[in-house]
Amino acid sequence: MNKSEEAETLIEARDDFVTQWGAIGNAWGINRTMAQIHALLLVSPGPLSTDEIMEDLHISRGNANTNLRDLVGWGLIKSVIRKGERKEFFEAEKDVWKMFCTIARERKRREISPAIEVLQRCSEKTTKLKADEAVEFHRQMEELGDFLRLADRVMEGLAGMEENKVVSMARKFFGTKV
Amino acid sequence: MNKSEEAETLIEARDDFVTQWGAIGNAWGINRTMAQIHALLLVSPGPLSTDEIMEDLHISRGNANTNLRDLVGWGLIKSVIRKGERKEFFEAEKDVWKMFCTIARERKRREISPAIEVLQRCSEKTTKLKADEAVEFHRQMEELGDFLRLADRVMEGLAGMEENKVVSMARKFFGTKV
DNA sequence: TTGCATGTTCTGGATTTTCAGAAAATCTTG
DNA sequence: CAAGATTTTCTGAAAATCCAGAACATGCAA
Questions:
Q1: pLDDT score recorded for residue B176
Q2: Is the CB of A31 under 7 A from strand C?
Q3: Which uninterrupted H or E stretch holds B11?
Q4: Nucleotides on strand D with an atom closer than 7 A to protein CB?
Protein backbone atom coordinates (compact mmCIF):
# COMPACT_ATOMS: atom_id res chain seq x y z
CA MET A 1 0.00 0.00 0.00
CA ASN A 2 1.52 3.30 -1.04
CA LYS A 3 1.20 6.61 0.68
CA SER A 4 -1.81 7.95 -1.13
CA GLU A 5 -3.63 4.68 -0.73
CA GLU A 6 -2.90 4.83 2.96
CA ALA A 7 -4.23 8.34 3.14
CA GLU A 8 -7.36 7.21 1.36
CA THR A 9 -7.85 4.34 3.78
CA LEU A 10 -7.55 6.68 6.72
CA ILE A 11 -10.11 9.04 5.30
CA GLU A 12 -12.45 6.15 4.72
CA ALA A 13 -12.05 4.87 8.25
CA ARG A 14 -12.64 8.32 9.66
CA ASP A 15 -15.73 8.75 7.57
CA ASP A 16 -16.99 5.37 8.57
CA PHE A 17 -16.49 6.20 12.22
CA VAL A 18 -18.25 9.56 12.02
CA THR A 19 -21.20 8.13 10.11
CA GLN A 20 -21.63 5.07 12.25
CA TRP A 21 -21.20 7.00 15.43
CA GLY A 22 -24.07 9.16 14.35
CA ALA A 23 -26.24 6.10 13.91
CA ILE A 24 -25.22 4.73 17.28
CA GLY A 25 -25.83 8.04 18.98
CA ASN A 26 -29.25 7.88 17.43
CA ALA A 27 -29.90 4.51 19.07
CA TRP A 28 -28.74 6.05 22.34
CA GLY A 29 -31.35 8.75 21.97
CA ILE A 30 -28.88 11.40 20.90
CA ASN A 31 -29.44 13.70 17.96
CA ARG A 32 -27.60 12.29 14.98
CA THR A 33 -25.97 15.55 13.99
CA MET A 34 -24.74 16.12 17.50
CA ALA A 35 -23.20 12.66 17.65
CA GLN A 36 -21.56 13.16 14.28
CA ILE A 37 -20.08 16.50 15.17
CA HIS A 38 -18.71 15.02 18.35
CA ALA A 39 -17.25 12.06 16.49
CA LEU A 40 -15.70 14.36 13.91
CA LEU A 41 -14.03 16.50 16.53
CA LEU A 42 -12.87 13.41 18.37
CA VAL A 43 -10.88 12.18 15.42
CA SER A 44 -9.67 15.50 14.09
CA PRO A 45 -6.01 16.22 14.73
CA GLY A 46 -6.78 19.84 15.57
CA PRO A 47 -9.66 22.19 16.33
CA LEU A 48 -12.19 22.78 13.55
CA SER A 49 -14.17 25.86 12.60
CA THR A 50 -17.91 25.89 12.09
CA ASP A 51 -17.39 26.14 8.34
CA GLU A 52 -15.14 23.13 8.22
CA ILE A 53 -17.70 21.12 10.16
CA MET A 54 -20.51 22.28 7.89
CA GLU A 55 -18.58 21.26 4.83
CA ASP A 56 -17.45 17.96 6.23
CA LEU A 57 -20.88 16.79 7.35
CA HIS A 58 -22.93 18.64 4.74
CA ILE A 59 -25.08 20.42 7.25
CA SER A 60 -26.39 23.96 7.46
CA ARG A 61 -24.88 26.72 9.52
CA GLY A 62 -27.87 26.88 11.83
CA ASN A 63 -27.78 23.19 12.50
CA ALA A 64 -24.03 23.23 13.11
CA ASN A 65 -24.25 26.19 15.44
CA THR A 66 -27.07 24.80 17.56
CA ASN A 67 -25.48 21.43 18.02
CA LEU A 68 -22.08 22.91 18.73
CA ARG A 69 -23.63 25.02 21.48
CA ASP A 70 -25.34 21.94 22.90
CA LEU A 71 -22.09 20.01 22.92
CA VAL A 72 -20.41 22.88 24.70
CA GLY A 73 -23.31 22.82 27.15
CA TRP A 74 -22.66 19.16 27.82
CA GLY A 75 -19.03 20.00 28.39
CA LEU A 76 -17.90 17.56 25.72
CA ILE A 77 -16.24 20.13 23.52
CA LYS A 78 -14.90 23.59 24.03
CA SER A 79 -14.28 26.52 21.80
CA VAL A 80 -10.80 27.68 21.05
CA ILE A 81 -9.84 31.15 19.97
CA ARG A 82 -6.76 31.42 17.84
CA LYS A 83 -4.55 34.44 17.85
CA GLY A 84 -5.20 36.58 14.82
CA GLU A 85 -8.22 34.54 13.75
CA ARG A 86 -11.71 35.85 14.14
CA LYS A 87 -13.36 32.51 13.65
CA GLU A 88 -14.20 30.32 16.58
CA PHE A 89 -12.73 26.82 16.58
CA PHE A 90 -13.87 23.76 18.47
CA GLU A 91 -12.07 20.82 19.94
CA ALA A 92 -13.27 17.74 21.79
CA GLU A 93 -12.05 16.36 25.06
CA LYS A 94 -10.25 13.28 23.85
CA ASP A 95 -9.50 11.51 27.09
CA VAL A 96 -12.08 8.75 27.17
CA TRP A 97 -12.32 8.57 30.92
CA LYS A 98 -12.82 12.31 31.27
CA MET A 99 -15.46 12.05 28.59
CA PHE A 100 -17.23 9.40 30.58
CA CYS A 101 -17.10 11.47 33.77
CA THR A 102 -18.59 14.45 32.00
CA ILE A 103 -21.39 12.41 30.53
CA ALA A 104 -22.07 10.65 33.80
CA ARG A 105 -22.40 13.93 35.68
CA GLU A 106 -24.64 15.47 33.05
CA ARG A 107 -26.94 12.48 32.84
CA LYS A 108 -27.12 12.37 36.58
CA ARG A 109 -28.22 15.96 36.62
CA ARG A 110 -30.61 15.74 33.70
CA GLU A 111 -32.09 12.30 34.07
CA ILE A 112 -31.60 10.80 37.49
CA SER A 113 -32.26 13.81 39.67
CA PRO A 114 -35.69 14.60 38.22
CA ALA A 115 -36.70 10.98 38.63
CA ILE A 116 -35.62 11.02 42.25
CA GLU A 117 -37.75 14.08 42.86
CA VAL A 118 -40.84 12.45 41.42
CA LEU A 119 -40.37 9.40 43.59
CA GLN A 120 -39.80 11.55 46.63
CA ARG A 121 -43.06 13.37 46.01
CA CYS A 122 -45.07 10.22 45.48
CA SER A 123 -43.52 8.68 48.52
CA GLU A 124 -44.24 11.61 50.81
CA LYS A 125 -47.80 11.93 49.66
CA THR A 126 -48.52 8.43 50.91
CA THR A 127 -46.47 8.26 54.09
CA LYS A 128 -49.39 8.34 56.47
CA LEU A 129 -51.84 6.13 54.63
CA LYS A 130 -52.91 2.95 56.33
CA ALA A 131 -54.52 0.71 53.72
CA ASP A 132 -52.43 -2.28 52.66
CA GLU A 133 -52.35 -1.17 49.08
CA ALA A 134 -51.15 2.27 50.05
CA VAL A 135 -48.43 0.89 52.28
CA GLU A 136 -47.28 -1.31 49.45
CA PHE A 137 -47.25 1.61 47.03
CA HIS A 138 -45.29 3.71 49.48
CA ARG A 139 -42.78 0.92 49.99
CA GLN A 140 -42.32 0.63 46.26
CA MET A 141 -41.67 4.33 45.81
CA GLU A 142 -39.10 4.13 48.58
CA GLU A 143 -37.41 1.16 47.02
CA LEU A 144 -37.16 2.78 43.62
CA GLY A 145 -35.93 5.97 45.22
CA ASP A 146 -33.32 4.15 47.27
CA PHE A 147 -32.03 2.47 44.18
CA LEU A 148 -31.76 5.66 42.19
CA ARG A 149 -30.09 7.47 45.07
CA LEU A 150 -27.59 4.65 45.28
CA ALA A 151 -26.96 4.81 41.54
CA ASP A 152 -26.57 8.55 41.88
CA ARG A 153 -23.89 8.21 44.51
CA VAL A 154 -22.05 5.51 42.66
CA MET A 155 -21.97 7.62 39.52
CA GLU A 156 -20.74 10.59 41.46
CA GLY A 157 -18.12 8.44 43.16
CA LEU A 158 -16.94 6.91 39.92
CA ALA A 159 -16.81 10.23 38.15
CA GLY A 160 -14.52 11.52 40.86
CA MET A 161 -12.05 8.68 40.64
CA GLU A 162 -8.86 8.30 38.68
CA GLU A 163 -9.11 6.07 35.69
CA ASN A 164 -6.41 3.62 36.73
CA LYS A 165 -8.09 3.25 40.10
CA VAL A 166 -11.34 2.29 38.43
CA VAL A 167 -9.65 -0.09 36.05
CA SER A 168 -7.85 -1.92 38.82
CA MET A 169 -11.07 -2.09 40.78
CA ALA A 170 -12.91 -3.49 37.81
CA ARG A 171 -10.19 -6.04 37.29
CA LYS A 172 -10.33 -7.07 40.91
CA PHE A 173 -14.07 -7.48 41.03
CA PHE A 174 -14.98 -8.58 37.59
CA GLY A 175 -11.79 -10.23 36.46
CA THR A 176 -11.38 -8.05 33.42
CA LYS A 177 -8.01 -7.95 31.80
CA VAL A 178 -7.98 -4.60 30.09
CA MET B 1 -58.30 11.90 56.87
CA ASN B 2 -61.06 9.33 56.49
CA LYS B 3 -60.99 6.19 54.47
CA SER B 4 -62.36 7.49 51.22
CA GLU B 5 -60.08 10.50 51.36
CA GLU B 6 -57.19 8.14 51.85
CA ALA B 7 -58.25 6.08 48.88
CA GLU B 8 -58.48 9.25 46.84
CA THR B 9 -55.00 10.31 47.86
CA LEU B 10 -53.60 6.94 46.87
CA ILE B 11 -55.23 7.12 43.46
CA GLU B 12 -53.81 10.59 42.98
CA ALA B 13 -50.32 9.49 43.93
CA ARG B 14 -50.50 6.51 41.59
CA ASP B 15 -51.69 8.69 38.77
CA ASP B 16 -48.98 11.20 39.43
CA PHE B 17 -46.38 8.48 39.36
CA VAL B 18 -47.61 6.95 36.13
CA THR B 19 -47.84 10.29 34.37
CA GLN B 20 -44.52 11.60 35.56
CA TRP B 21 -42.78 8.35 34.87
CA GLY B 22 -43.95 8.65 31.31
CA ALA B 23 -42.38 12.08 31.06
CA ILE B 24 -39.14 10.84 32.57
CA GLY B 25 -39.04 7.85 30.29
CA ASN B 26 -39.40 10.32 27.47
CA ALA B 27 -36.34 12.22 28.65
CA TRP B 28 -34.52 8.90 28.78
CA GLY B 29 -35.38 8.29 25.15
CA ILE B 30 -38.12 5.79 25.91
CA ASN B 31 -41.53 5.90 24.32
CA ARG B 32 -43.90 7.63 26.68
CA THR B 33 -46.64 5.06 26.39
CA MET B 34 -44.21 2.26 27.08
CA ALA B 35 -42.92 3.99 30.19
CA GLN B 36 -46.44 4.65 31.39
CA ILE B 37 -47.58 1.09 30.90
CA HIS B 38 -44.55 -0.11 32.77
CA ALA B 39 -45.18 2.34 35.60
CA LEU B 40 -48.82 1.33 35.76
CA LEU B 41 -47.99 -2.35 36.03
CA LEU B 42 -45.31 -1.59 38.59
CA VAL B 43 -47.79 -0.06 41.00
CA SER B 44 -50.75 -2.30 40.30
CA PRO B 45 -51.46 -4.81 43.02
CA GLY B 46 -52.16 -7.53 40.48
CA PRO B 47 -51.86 -8.32 36.78
CA LEU B 48 -53.84 -6.18 34.35
CA SER B 49 -55.52 -7.01 31.08
CA THR B 50 -55.00 -5.09 27.87
CA ASP B 51 -58.46 -3.55 28.25
CA GLU B 52 -57.78 -2.33 31.75
CA ILE B 53 -54.56 -0.72 30.59
CA MET B 54 -56.29 0.89 27.61
CA GLU B 55 -58.95 2.34 29.84
CA ASP B 56 -56.57 3.50 32.50
CA LEU B 57 -54.20 5.31 30.17
CA HIS B 58 -56.73 6.27 27.49
CA ILE B 59 -54.83 4.64 24.68
CA SER B 60 -55.89 2.55 21.70
CA ARG B 61 -55.77 -1.18 21.52
CA GLY B 62 -53.07 -1.16 18.87
CA ASN B 63 -50.87 1.13 20.87
CA ALA B 64 -51.33 -0.91 24.02
CA ASN B 65 -50.60 -4.15 22.24
CA THR B 66 -47.44 -2.98 20.55
CA ASN B 67 -45.95 -1.51 23.67
CA LEU B 68 -46.90 -4.50 25.79
CA ARG B 69 -45.07 -6.72 23.31
CA ASP B 70 -42.04 -4.47 23.44
CA LEU B 71 -42.01 -4.57 27.21
CA VAL B 72 -42.21 -8.33 27.12
CA GLY B 73 -39.34 -8.23 24.64
CA TRP B 74 -37.29 -6.24 27.10
CA GLY B 75 -38.12 -8.79 29.75
CA LEU B 76 -39.61 -6.13 32.01
CA ILE B 77 -43.07 -7.60 32.13
CA LYS B 78 -44.52 -10.99 31.46
CA SER B 79 -47.92 -12.24 30.51
CA VAL B 80 -49.99 -14.25 32.91
CA ILE B 81 -52.73 -16.65 31.96
CA ARG B 82 -55.48 -17.07 34.48
CA LYS B 83 -57.43 -20.25 34.83
CA GLY B 84 -60.81 -19.95 33.20
CA GLU B 85 -60.00 -16.56 31.63
CA ARG B 86 -59.34 -16.18 27.97
CA LYS B 87 -57.82 -12.75 28.22
CA GLU B 88 -54.12 -12.31 28.65
CA PHE B 89 -52.93 -10.44 31.73
CA PHE B 90 -49.64 -8.68 32.35
CA GLU B 91 -47.52 -8.11 35.39
CA ALA B 92 -44.23 -6.31 35.92
CA GLU B 93 -41.14 -7.59 37.64
CA LYS B 94 -41.24 -5.54 40.82
CA ASP B 95 -37.87 -6.28 42.32
CA VAL B 96 -35.89 -3.16 41.56
CA TRP B 97 -32.54 -4.88 41.39
CA LYS B 98 -33.80 -7.54 39.02
CA MET B 99 -35.27 -4.77 36.94
CA PHE B 100 -31.92 -3.07 36.77
CA CYS B 101 -30.18 -6.29 35.76
CA THR B 102 -32.65 -6.86 32.95
CA ILE B 103 -32.26 -3.34 31.65
CA ALA B 104 -28.48 -3.47 31.95
CA ARG B 105 -28.26 -6.66 29.92
CA GLU B 106 -30.59 -5.40 27.23
CA ARG B 107 -28.85 -2.09 26.85
CA LYS B 108 -25.56 -3.87 26.68
CA ARG B 109 -26.88 -5.98 23.87
CA ARG B 110 -28.66 -3.24 22.00
CA GLU B 111 -26.39 -0.26 22.52
CA ILE B 112 -22.92 -1.19 23.66
CA SER B 113 -22.27 -4.21 21.48
CA PRO B 114 -22.98 -2.49 18.16
CA ALA B 115 -20.74 0.39 19.18
CA ILE B 116 -17.95 -2.02 20.02
CA GLU B 117 -18.27 -3.59 16.60
CA VAL B 118 -17.96 -0.27 14.83
CA LEU B 119 -14.84 0.61 16.77
CA GLN B 120 -13.36 -2.78 16.08
CA ARG B 121 -13.88 -2.30 12.37
CA CYS B 122 -12.39 1.16 12.31
CA SER B 123 -9.50 -0.02 14.38
CA GLU B 124 -8.69 -3.00 12.20
CA LYS B 125 -8.90 -1.01 9.01
CA THR B 126 -6.07 1.19 10.21
CA THR B 127 -3.81 -1.26 11.99
CA LYS B 128 -1.09 -1.25 9.43
CA LEU B 129 -0.99 2.41 8.52
CA LYS B 130 2.18 4.33 9.22
CA ALA B 131 1.36 8.02 9.06
CA ASP B 132 1.28 9.81 12.41
CA GLU B 133 -2.32 10.83 11.96
CA ALA B 134 -3.34 7.29 11.19
CA VAL B 135 -1.52 5.91 14.18
CA GLU B 136 -3.23 8.46 16.35
CA PHE B 137 -6.61 7.57 14.90
CA HIS B 138 -5.98 3.92 15.44
CA ARG B 139 -4.93 4.53 19.02
CA GLN B 140 -8.11 6.46 19.63
CA MET B 141 -10.32 3.73 18.27
CA GLU B 142 -8.53 1.27 20.52
CA GLU B 143 -8.98 3.48 23.53
CA LEU B 144 -12.66 3.96 22.97
CA GLY B 145 -13.04 0.24 22.31
CA ASP B 146 -11.14 -0.68 25.46
CA PHE B 147 -13.37 1.56 27.48
CA LEU B 148 -16.57 0.15 26.08
CA ARG B 149 -15.35 -3.40 26.52
CA LEU B 150 -14.56 -2.58 30.13
CA ALA B 151 -17.99 -1.07 30.64
CA ASP B 152 -19.48 -4.13 29.01
CA ARG B 153 -17.77 -6.47 31.43
CA VAL B 154 -18.61 -4.37 34.43
CA MET B 155 -22.26 -4.31 33.45
CA GLU B 156 -22.26 -8.03 32.94
CA GLY B 157 -20.52 -8.53 36.25
CA LEU B 158 -22.90 -6.28 38.11
CA ALA B 159 -25.95 -7.83 36.52
CA GLY B 160 -24.80 -11.19 37.75
CA MET B 161 -24.33 -10.14 41.36
CA GLU B 162 -26.67 -10.31 44.31
CA GLU B 163 -28.14 -7.02 45.32
CA ASN B 164 -26.84 -7.02 48.88
CA LYS B 165 -23.36 -7.75 47.56
CA VAL B 166 -23.52 -4.69 45.32
CA VAL B 167 -24.91 -2.49 48.05
CA SER B 168 -22.17 -3.43 50.48
CA MET B 169 -19.60 -2.87 47.79
CA ALA B 170 -21.03 0.53 47.01
CA ARG B 171 -21.01 1.42 50.67
CA LYS B 172 -17.42 0.35 51.01
CA PHE B 173 -16.16 2.27 48.02
CA PHE B 174 -18.37 5.28 47.87
CA GLY B 175 -19.38 5.64 51.47
CA THR B 176 -23.07 5.46 50.76
CA LYS B 177 -25.33 4.73 53.64
CA VAL B 178 -28.33 3.17 51.97
C1' DT C 1 -19.76 55.42 9.53
C1' DT C 2 -19.88 51.42 5.94
C1' DG C 3 -18.94 46.84 4.71
C1' DC C 4 -17.71 42.36 5.66
C1' DA C 5 -16.97 38.26 8.55
C1' DT C 6 -18.96 35.71 11.92
C1' DG C 7 -22.51 34.00 15.17
C1' DT C 8 -27.44 33.40 16.64
C1' DT C 9 -32.25 32.91 16.19
C1' DC C 10 -36.38 32.13 13.58
C1' DT C 11 -39.54 29.97 10.18
C1' DG C 12 -41.44 26.72 7.37
C1' DG C 13 -40.98 22.46 5.48
C1' DA C 14 -39.11 17.54 5.57
C1' DT C 15 -38.57 13.50 8.20
C1' DT C 16 -39.52 10.48 11.87
C1' DT C 17 -42.20 8.82 15.57
C1' DT C 18 -46.32 7.86 17.70
C1' DC C 19 -50.89 6.36 17.77
C1' DA C 20 -56.11 5.63 16.91
C1' DG C 21 -59.07 2.90 14.62
C1' DA C 22 -60.01 -0.48 11.20
C1' DA C 23 -58.97 -4.76 9.12
C1' DA C 24 -57.10 -9.15 9.43
C1' DA C 25 -55.56 -13.06 11.86
C1' DT C 26 -55.82 -16.25 15.60
C1' DC C 27 -57.73 -18.46 19.05
C1' DT C 28 -61.53 -20.90 22.02
C1' DT C 29 -65.71 -23.02 22.77
C1' DG C 30 -69.54 -25.37 21.54
C1' DC D 1 -67.35 -26.13 11.45
C1' DA D 2 -69.46 -21.41 13.15
C1' DA D 3 -69.56 -17.48 16.19
C1' DG D 4 -67.72 -14.75 19.19
C1' DA D 5 -63.63 -13.32 21.89
C1' DT D 6 -59.06 -11.80 21.74
C1' DT D 7 -54.79 -10.45 19.65
C1' DT D 8 -51.93 -8.70 15.91
C1' DT D 9 -50.98 -5.98 12.00
C1' DC D 10 -51.84 -2.22 8.91
C1' DT D 11 -52.93 2.58 7.39
C1' DG D 12 -53.31 7.22 7.49
C1' DA D 13 -53.25 11.11 10.33
C1' DA D 14 -51.39 13.85 14.28
C1' DA D 15 -47.49 15.17 16.84
C1' DA D 16 -42.78 15.73 17.66
C1' DT D 17 -38.28 16.37 15.99
C1' DC D 18 -34.91 17.87 12.93
C1' DC D 19 -32.81 20.99 9.93
C1' DA D 20 -31.88 24.26 5.70
C1' DG D 21 -31.86 28.72 4.68
C1' DA D 22 -33.13 33.30 5.63
C1' DA D 23 -33.27 37.03 8.68
C1' DC D 24 -31.19 39.21 12.24
C1' DA D 25 -27.37 40.51 15.44
C1' DT D 26 -22.75 41.46 16.67
C1' DG D 27 -18.24 42.74 16.28
C1' DC D 28 -14.29 44.37 13.80
C1' DA D 29 -11.51 47.03 10.49
C1' DA D 30 -10.82 50.61 7.51
A1: 54
A2: no
A3: helix B3-27
A4: 5-11, 17-23, 28
